Amino acid sequence: WLWPCAYGDSDVRTRLGIDHCPLNDHACCDVELTRAGQIVLSFAEVRSEAVVRHTRQFVAGWLVSKIFLHNLLKWIVPRLCGFLCTRGIYPLLVLDFLQDLVTDLTFRSGDRRQRAARRSFGWRWRPNLCCCRR
């Protein structure tokens, strides 16, 4: 209830007559529009729907940032650090890292062991790198 009168479009606020209410005055914006004894429009419902919509948007954004981005960074940063530690910094580092990443993602689990064995010898694997082609 920090800003109870802050919700709703300007036309809804004008129809209910609360466009002059201060944003923090709950009593001023607690109104209903009735016709023949039935509630046609209630600002409490407008406010409730807006709060639910904003909460859903916040939770969706938080989940994307917390789960997706966090897991992506948790997976890619150690790979990049390991890549930099074994090779150092050179001009086509980004291209070689992306090639290594795509190659590793497309290999089956049994092929990864063979690739790791090839990587330890270096001379068989190095010609595939962008910067080391002769």
Helix content: 55-70%
Strand-residue proportion: 5-15%
The parts where pLDDT drops under 50 for at least 5 residues are 120-125
- The assembly state of the depicted protein chains is single chain
Record the strand order, biggest sheet: 1-2
Order of helices and strands: HEEHHH
Intertermini distance = 68 Å
The number of helical segments is: 4
Q: Count the beta strands.
A: 2
Largest sheet composition = 2 strands, antiparallel
User: How would you classify the helix and strand content by structural class?
Assistant: mainly alpha
> What's the alpha carbon Rg, rounded to whole Å?
30 Å
> Can you tell me the overall shape?
rod-shaped
Question: Mean pLDDT score, rounded?
Answer: 79
Distinctive features:
59% helix; rod-shaped; 134 residues; mainly alpha
Architecture overview:
It contains 4 helices and 2 strands. With 134 residues, the protein is mainly α. It has a two-stranded antiparallel sheet with strand order 1-2. Strand 1 and strand 2 (38-42) form a beta hairpin. The chain is rod-shaped. The model is unreliable at 120-125 (pLDDT under 50).
What is the topology?
Elements (H helix, E strand, L loop, with lengths): L9 H7 L15 E4 L2 E5 H45 L5 H14 L2 H13 L13
Antiparallel strand pairs: 1-2
Brief rundown of the structure:
The protein is mostly helical and 134 residues long. Helices cover 59% and strands 7% of the residues.
